[in-house]
Design a protein that fits this description.
By secondary structure, this protein is of the alpha/beta class. The chain has 15 helices and 22 strands. The chain starts with 11 loop residues before the first strand and ends with a strand.
Length: 485
């Protein structure tokens, strides 16, 4: 698979200019592995060094940019993405395998994220603190202000190639911090296209670089002391190792999960079924807050499960560019093979298959069908690990506290969903669930882009959501003013 004159590799965005390199990268189309989604370049060592040096130099300008200029640039980016909605949505679908309806929704969310960034750029404030709490501090006052931390290293994943990158770029630009982004190796073309919009936003040269690179070169970002913050979204195994090697820089990790959902006896069953179908099977479950473990009260088990299985059975598998497709491909054949292996291991240990579990007549090697399992041993990998696949493990419960313990029986803690009309149960879930977010009467897959988002335990540290990311990308400084007496 080599590029032709008609399919010239997309150049990479280095400190405000477009460059090429000797290392051509082929981007595979998950739906048609024999047909490339496109080509680009991996940055060289020299290009990486140029980008970081430019970011350090740009900080002298970005940290002094007034709020109205930062806001204006972010609004231009949002408007530019919106104007190219169909083009970018199709590109997301082609290089990541995401169904086109979901890809277009991601574009809309990316637009919203940059617009929120434009608003938050004008809200970075401080406070006045009275300091005269004892006689020695008489006549003294404190004033705080947030200052940008410095150059930021960012690494984003394939499953939301636009919006998860936007959650690093928008707050960085809003806070006045230069940023070097490593987009996902499997899906870099989306953000390189967005870089065409960023290039027209009027930001200082060097303030943004978007560089595809090998994992070995990207690893330099982790230990490079010129970066003052590393923000990474990806797998827990990789993320926690990065933190160990990051040195003195701040680290924000948005990692994986195996999200749990509780369907209590008071739940609206029709609503719970509809939302759990979306939460479990959207983008073939390749979402870190996808519904993976489902706990259903025995009083509503038969009703819920009957509807849930039938709704999952009705999902349409097909070409991700077809607007009628519900289930597209997984990112690659290895992801399918791992999913099948974990499902087979669970079945061998006594699990029962209510739906799916093996190839369903499709010719594609990258498609795994919607799968629902019961009676799965708690120590099975499909329960304990992050499946990142269209697989749901369902268990009955009789007592709400039992269901809470079931959700908490995990090394992950990103978000959890609770379907209940019992107010006491909702408050109990909020107080007792060991997660970063509790979503009442909806799935853990719910997220809107201004809310604080992140996990506990092995699911990460720090929070995204533009305002909350800005807090990590800035530092508080206090000025103490004394009145001479």
């Amino acid at each position: 698979m080599t590029p032709t004159a008609e399919t010239k590799p997309h150049p990479i965005f280095l400190a405000g200019r477009w460059v090429e390199s000797p290392d051509v990268a082929v981007i595979v189309n998950p739906a048609r592995p024999d047909e490339p989604a496109g080509w680009t370049y991996n940055a060289t060592t020299e290009q990486y060094e140029e980008a970081v040096t430019a970011a350090v130099a740009a900080f002298e300008k970005t940290r002094k940019l007034p709020a109205y200029e930062r806001s204006a640039a972010l609004r231009k980016i949002a408007d530019g993405i919106e104007a190219r909605r169909e083009e970018i949505g199709r590109l997301i679908s082609t290089e990541s395998g995401k169904p086109i309806r979901d890809a277009l929704t991601e574009v809309d969310r990316g637009v919203l994220t940059f617009r929120i960034g434009a608003e938050e750029a004008g809200r970075i404030g401080g406070e006045v603190i009275p300091l005269d709490l004892n006689p020695a501090s008489r006549g003294r006052l404190g004033v705080t202000r947030r200052f940008p931390i410095g150059p930021i290293a960012a690494i984003s994943p394939f499953n939301f190639p636009l919006n998860l990158a936007a959650h690093k770029l928008a707050p960085a630009i809003a806070s006045g911090a230069p940023i070097v982004l490593k987009p996902p190796s499997r899906a870099p073309l989306t953000m390189l296209t967005v870089a065409e919009v960023i290039a027209e936003a009027g930001l200082p040269e060097g303030s943004v670089s978007i560089l595809p690179m090998t994992r070995e070169l990207g690893d330099r970002m982790v230990t490079d002391e010129r970066f003052k913050l590393l923000t990474f979204t990806g797998s827990p195994a990789v993320g926690w190792k990065m933190k160990e090697r990051a040195g003195k820089k701040k680290v924000v990790l948005e990692l994986g999960g195996n999200a749990g959902v509780i369907v209590d006896r008071s739940a609206n069953i029709d609503w719970a079924v509809r939302r759990c179908i979306v939460g479990a099977f959207s983008y073939s479950g390749q979402v870190c807050i996808s519904v993976q473990r489902l706990f259903v009260h025995e009083a509503v088990w038969a009703d819920f499960m009957g509807r849930f299985v039938e709704a999952a059975r009705a999902l349409r598998t097909g070409d991700p560019l077809d607007p009628g497709t519900d289930i597209g491909p997984m990112i690659d054949e290895q992801a399918v093979e791992r999913t099948k292996r974990w499902v087979d291991e669970a079945i061998a240990a006594g699990a029962h298959v209510l739906l799916g579990g093996k190839a369903s007549g499709t010719d594609s090697v990258t498609v795994f069908p919607p799968t629902i399992l019961t009676d799965v041993p708690a120590d099975a990998a499909i329960c304990r690990e992050e499946a990142f696949a269209p697989v749901v493990v369902v268990s009955p419960f009789t007592d709400f506290a039992e269901a809470v313990r079931g959700v908490n029986d995990s090394r992950f803690g990103l978000q959890a969903g609770v379907f209940t009309n019992d107010l006491a149960g909702a408050w109990t879930a909020f107080e007792e669930l060991e997660v970063g977010g509790v979503i009442i009467n909806d799935v853990p897959t719910y997220r809107i882009d201004h809310m604080p988002y992140g996990g506990v335990k092995d699911s990460g540290q720090g929070r995204e959501g533009v305002r909350y990311a800005i807090e990590d990308m800035t530092e508080i400084r206090i000025m103490v003013m004394a009145s001479p007496e």
